[in-house]
UniProtKB/TrEMBL annotation:
It comes from the Eukaryota. GO terms for cellular component: cytosol; nucleus. Belongs to the OPI10 family. InterPro entries: Hikeshi-like_C, Hikeshi-like_N, OPI10. The lineage of its organism: Eukaryota, Viridiplantae, Streptophyta, Embryophyta, Tracheophyta. Pfam families: Hikeshi-like_C, Hikeshi-like_N. It comes from Rhodamnia argentea. Residues 138-189 form the Hikeshi-like C-terminal domain. This is Protein Hikeshi. One of its GO terms (biological process) is protein import into nucleus. Residues 18-126 form the Hikeshi-like N-terminal domain. GO terms for molecular function: nuclear import signal receptor activity.
Length: 193
């Protein structure tokens, strides 16, 4: 059905390495796989195997779980996107914060080891197939906004408790931003880091 590779850490691993919980859920115990250094495994490639037919409205969703924390969604693959390299954002151990409702064990049992879960789910129920791309876009938007704020701040005057900027400040910033991007192709890449 699927296979995974941990870049620079493993050969391709097939579904037989995962424990099958039920028809639609599989779990890989990372403590058995890499020991306590599970959080050093930063990404994985998941891929559908040739000949496997996943219904068009279904996806294989990937989740990670640190000891004592809920599962956190990482991304998914579908027939139209049969492989993906996904970052593994391991939550802090014991962090009961913003996890996903994926249940592969009893809700009362705290996990004793780190796990990667794979689940067949409806595509429409998943937030996004590419969580990493969304994070990169968010990070880029924040850095562009920070650049604008810093530029505006350098022209600010004080009027009581308010900052006052020239009326053409956005035009000036945008022109400077465009000129710098044309001169230095690496400039925009710096915002995406």
């Amino acid at each position: 059905m699927f296979g995974v590779v941990f870049p620079n850490r493993s050969f391709p691993i097939d579904i037989s390495t995962f424990a099958q919980i039920d028809t639609f859920h599989w779990v890989l115990d990372m403590n058995t796989f890499v020991g306590e250094a599970y959080d050093q495994v930063r990404e994985m490639c998941i891929f559908l195997l040739n000949g496997f037919t996943l219904p068009p409205n279904k996806a294989l969703a990937v989740y990670v779980q640190s000891p004592g924390s809920p599962f956190v969604y990482c991304g998914a693959v579908t027939l139209s996107r049969p492989s993906a390299v996904l970052p593994l954002p391991w939550p802090e151990p014991g962090d009961a914060g913003a996890g996903q409702p994926l249940q592969l064990t009893s809700p009362d049992a705290a996990p004793l080891s780190a796990k990667i879960g794979v689940s067949v789910e409806d595509v429409g129920a998943l937030a996004s197939l590419d969580v990493a791309a969304e994070r990169r876009i968010e990070r880029m938007a924040m850095r562009v906004g920070e650049n604008l704020f810093n530029f505006m701040q350098s022209f600010c005057g004080l009027d009581g408790s308010k900052l006052v900027v020239p009326t053409d400040i956005l035009d000036r910033w945008f022109k400077k931003f465009q000129e710098r991007a044309k001169r230095d192709p690496e400039y925009l890449k710096g915002f995406a880091l």
